[in-house]
């Protein structure tokens, strides 16, 4: 059974940084993407970025490109979201998720971690 556990959220001032972690278990093979999403109060869930398990094929939304970086440590089965130059509009619950390459949607989700950026 696939389990994803996010950690690292918290309160930070605008311009600051945070690093989120997503620890994965139960994944089989290596043909999948790990994605990060976020959902702010009253808004729809938004795609942030994703990385292939081989470390290539990273992709970011325009709203975070140049500020956020996704990386992974396969030995630890962990994916990271490094967030720099944070803005109040980055405030949201952040989720990691898994999509197998042959699937059209993300099938497994973590419970989310809150990120709050104060102005």
Describe the protein:
The chain is an all-beta fold. Helix content is about 0%, strand content about 55%. The chain contains no helices and eleven strands. It has strands at about 5, 10-15, 20-25, 30-40, 45-50, 60, 70-75, 80-85, 90-100, 110, 115-119. Strands 2, 4, 5, 6, 9, 10 and 11 form a seven-stranded mixed beta sheet that branches. The chain has a four-stranded antiparallel beta sheet with strand order 1-3-8-7, with no helix packed on it. The radius of gyration is 13 Å and the shape is globular. The model has no long low-confidence stretch (mean pLDDT about 95).
List the topology elements.
Layout: E1 3-7, E2 10-13, E3 18-25, E4 32-39, E5 46-52, E6 59-60, E7 68-73, E8 78-83, E9 92-100, E10 108-109, E11 113-118
Parallel strand pairs: 2-11
Antiparallel strand pairs: 1-3, 3-8, 4-5, 4-9, 5-6, 7-8, 9-10, 9-11
Quick overview of this protein structure:
This protein is mainly beta. It is 0% helix and 53% strand.
Runs in which pLDDT lies below 50 for 5 or more consecutive residues are none
Percentage of residues assigned to helices: under 10%
Q: Please give the alpha-carbon distance between the first and last residues.
A: 40 Å
H/E series: EEEEEEEEEEE
Q: Which structural class is indicated by helix and strand composition?
A: mainly beta
Number of strands: 11
Overall mean pLDDT stands at 94
Strand content: over 45%
Rg over alpha carbons: 13 Å
What characterizes the major β-sheet?
A: 7 strands, mixed
Shape by Cα distribution: globular
DSSP helix count? 0
